Queue: 2 jobs
Job 1
Amino acid sequence: MSNFQESLEKYAKLAIETGVNLQTGQGLILNAPVEAAEFVRLVVKEAYAAGAKNVHVEWNDEDLTYLKMKHAPMEVLENFPKWRAQGLEEMAKDDYALLTIYGENPDLLKDIDAARISATSKAGAEALTEYRNFIMNDKISWSIVGYPTRSWAEKVFPDVSSDEAQRKLWDNIFKIVRIDKESPVDAWNKHNETLRIAREYLNEKQYTKLIYQTEGTDLTIELPKNHIWHGGSAVSETGTEFNPNMPTEEVFTMPAKYGVNGIVSSTKPLSYGGNLIDKFKLTFKDGKVVDFTAEQGEESLKHLLDTDEDGARRLGEVALVPHQSPISQSGIIFYNTLFDENASCHLALGKAYPTNIENGPNMSEQEMDKFGVNDSLVHEDFMIGSATLNIDGVTEDGKTEAIFRDGNWAISFD
Ligand code: ZN
Ligand code: ZN
């Protein structure tokens, strides 16, 4: 067996065992590009080997997506088929796990009218509200893994041939998700342990505020009382430990939706709905974006912020990632949030993970609002970390402590 084939099989096994941690008798929903068919077959084989009762594959194809976005009438884009949402909900209710194989072309919809894109994503987000709740509340186990589609690889490595670009992106992905280690599963367990120590430290501290400062950024983020930091593996409602993102380097919690003030500048391009938004600044007042500029993709950014009443203008996640994380050290801009968010401190516009606050998954809409938990049709991470970012935490008794200095932890966890 070639080295590559061996790595591919290890990757498929890792996605099933460590990613979703599929249990005997459980079903699996698999989202994947048709281009990844060969890899998908390996994953499905691993799923059945792990005891899956059924694997349902939701294929996507970027050429077909493009054609639909280009030609379908607006009324089709504005109406996400109910039967699709119902089918997904039905499987989630039956405790299917969800694995997404992800490798989007960041420029796919560059020449499509932004209003058509936002109508499509809004319709999808509305129709999938209940399904999304299964995922964002960790009711089911779910995971996202990367796959180097040709168009994505060409974007990341524009100076080499298409084949070479894909090979290079595979090499990087394998390294980043620890496929090069003797036992990737053990390596992940060790990594999760490091993230556990960091999140427990922060949970103990219960900072009331985080203060971000660097060139172009001066932002204060209040944290709600009883917020919970997560990072690394999570546990589903049925008690299965799973890894939502592979790779993952972040610890994250929720900001108070009315307690964000100041200005923040992006430090990496954001791939959003087949378009890139780059070099943007957001100004917050009482939690809401009241002003914004972008050097690239300002129209897309505007549509993102205007997705709903004001949920998309408020924050739903604050995540800490050291600048010396292995992904960041690769020096590569991936144009793919799964990778770029794990190379950089980031925030997310939109819905908060209810699991980031005590009793969050059981709160009513009114309670969520009262405790400062943001709700929205979107959840979109954007990167703000750099080698010069400083972050301070303010304790309940008003003391200010260093959390990050020059982009890295100011705390030693030994
Ligand atoms: Zn994140
Ligand atoms: Zn996020």
Note: The radius of gyration is 20 Å.
Job 2
Amino acid sequence: MPNAKAPQAIETNDQASTFLNGKNSLTITDNRTGKQYDMRIENDTIRAMDLRQIKVKDDDFGMMTYDPAFMNTAACKSTITYIDGDKGILRYRGYPIEQLAEKSNFLETAYLIIYGELPTKTENEEWVYNIMTHTLVHENMKKFVDGFHYDAHPMGMLICSVAALSTFYTDAKNIMDPSCRKLQIFRLIGKMPTLAAFAYRHSVGRPYVYPDNDMSYAGNFLNMLLKTTELKYKPNPVLERALDVLFILHADHEQNCSTSAMRNVGSSHVDPFSAAAAATAALYGPLHGGANEAVLNMLDEIRHKNNVPAFIKEVKEGRGRLMGFGHRVYKNYDPRAKVIKHLADEVFEVTGRNPKLDIALELERIALEDEYFIKRKLYPNVDFYSGLIYQAMGFPVEMFPVLFAIGRTPGWVAQWEEMLLDTEQKIARPRQIYLGHDTRDYTMMGKRTQKA
Ligand code: ACO
């Protein structure tokens, strides 16, 4: 959606009537033919299909738009997440991220994102019960994870085990049955931490830990990651809450790469586990879920805060980027980065200060005063401080995108269900501009000439 509109803008009747009065329209003149076309403007948008009437000859295909990477194309209407990148605003179902991070918890926020409203006490109890009683995975899943090489990346293992869920729950393909969808949503949100923890335990050579449903969602995840010989693992409450807040901050971010993958793959009407595996794969990429690891590597390279001015100079000369700065949508301070910066102080009180924090603070201080960064509207994004917290909490860097995937799961399933119920949606299938050969005849192998 264009960022200028709030989610309620999905109601279009008033605008339709204004269009009939001739106000909400765009007139396009095709200079090839001199013909004029009147297009309805709805939510500051014209419909790409309306352009197809623009033709030079009757048998022309008609006009399309060319938009690599979907820089300016709204592929859906949504009422879930609102972002105003210029003002640094992020809201789930209208609630500011800052309020949710302060007052809500991850499962309550997940309910809000999926069902559109905050739960009542009874709804919340039922919801938490349903998620926490779907945390166990089939015993065969352990054998499946055992099959991975000892140094397999946990994100690679997670992609495969999420996809494997579809083989255990074959009923999941009944995607048009609302009660079936509901069950798969419980399963995905419930089992994601278990699969993530199994991947981690396999990579460190420790036995898998079964979920403990008496604990909180984040507490149980820490239990499955870190429990050793104690009878009952007790997470540190500050770290448990910090992890829960980090999950809230990652829960949805409208039509990002992994969410678009979930929608696109889901639009073929495959089961949600297969679609979520595709979304997890999209998140694995360093341009999406892997940037916080790059921030840590950068801080390691800089080594000391005294080296920051020299590093900034290199960045300005085009030799490298300031990782964790800049965002395709935010042209202001990423609101999630603000919350994380505050959270870092609480975490470091428990874990001890991550020595890299001083370098990060100095980088931020210098960059925010520097004309290069000001002019380009480059501010810290969510990844600038999150890696420092994860590292202080003892997570290896390979686990960073895995944590992101757990947090993003409610967003994926909410967007998937919204797509399925949207009567305007069909199987996703972009167009192309074909610039290859025109028709030509097959040449027998003996007659082909060697290319230079
Ligand atoms: N450091 C230095 N310069 C930068 C940075 C940066 N981090 N980001 C952008 N710029 C500069 C570019 O060089 C360009 O300058 P120019 O106009 O002189 O050529 C200008 O700012 C615009 O940059 P683009 O690359 O066009 O911006 P885009 O919106 O395509 O990129 C991106 C956004 C990929 C996030 C970019 O800012 C970046 O690479 N940041 C560092 C990596 C990072 O932190 N990624 C995490 C994003 S958050 C997330 O995915 C969860």
Note: The chain has two domains: 15-65, 77-427.
